[in-house]
Design brief:
By secondary structure, the protein is an alpha/beta fold. 44% of the residues lie in helices and 16% in strands. The radius of gyration is 17 Å and the shape is globular. The termini are far apart.
Length: 239
């Protein structure tokens, strides 16, 4: 229960990595604020955390909607008086070769993966600066470090997440606010990787454990970026 008394906002908490992070923070005793667009899944995940003894709440929020984001932030601060952690996990992965990828898909992905992250972070930063403590943990991707075929747009969005993190980390040092970026490799999430042995790639709980570890670092320790990769090479995990 090392995060007891802490308040954490987790975006994209309806499924996958975000769901696992919310459960992990609930286990650690944090007051966990789940937000995403799918209300029913949010409700289920919140109830699960509560049934295991955790303290959890949810907001149906589209992080590309500035009004909804501000309402969630204001409600959280009004209720709990602070925000200790912002975990920026919400995002979408769309692939396609550049000559086939639609600009509509490009704009939608950039709007969620980059603008949405920037918008919610922009609102949380003044709160953490005033507190003179807190941590922002951004979930990027291995694709943000190295591009690959059909991933040009997604890789660009996730590289942007890394650079946002690097830049605001320098802005926030004097206020004792840390910024961490997690770059996972292939993660076993629903409806992806049909030809892969999912038990041999990363699990959402692996990312959740890493995020919880970062949240519990002593004040003197900083880990700006973490890259997590599957142990097995790709030829060993194909079905």
């Amino acid at each position: 229960m090392k995060l007891k008394g802490k308040v954490a906002i987790i975006t994209g908490a309806s499924s996958g990595i975000g769901e696992a992070i919310a459960e992990r923070f609930g286990e650690e005793g944090a007051t966990t604020i789940l937000c995403a667009r799918r209300t029913e899944l949010l409700r289920e995940n919140t109830d699960k955390i509560k049934s295991n003894g955790g303290d959890a709440y949810y907001f149906q929020v589209d992080i590309t909607n500035d009004f909804e984001v501000k309402n969630m932030i204001d409600s959280t601060v009004n209720s709990f008086g602070k925000i200790d952690f912002l975990i920026n996990n919400a995002g979408v992965a769309l692939g396609g070769r550049i000559d086939e990828f639609s600009m509509n898909d490009f704009d939608n992905m950039m709007n969620l993966n980059l603008r949405g992250l920037y918008s919610i972070t922009k609102l949380v930063v003044p709160i953490m600066k005033q507190q003179r403590k807190g941590a922002i943990i951004n979930i990027s991707s291995g694709s943000g470090l190295k591009g690959s075929p059909t991933q040009s747009a997604y890789a660009a969005s996730k590289a942007g997440v890394i650079k946002i993190g690097e830049s605001i980390a320098e802005e926030l040092k004097e206020f004792n606010v840390k910024v961490h970026t997690v770059c996972p490799g292939m993660v076993a999430v629903k409806n992806q990787y049909a030809n892969i042995q999912k038990e041999k790639i990363l699990q959402p709980t692996d990312i959740a454990d890493t995020v919880a570890y970062l949240a519990k670092l002593p004040e003197r320790v900083n880990i700006p970026e973490v890259t997590i990769t599957p142990y097995y090479p790709i030829h060993m995990i194909r079905k």
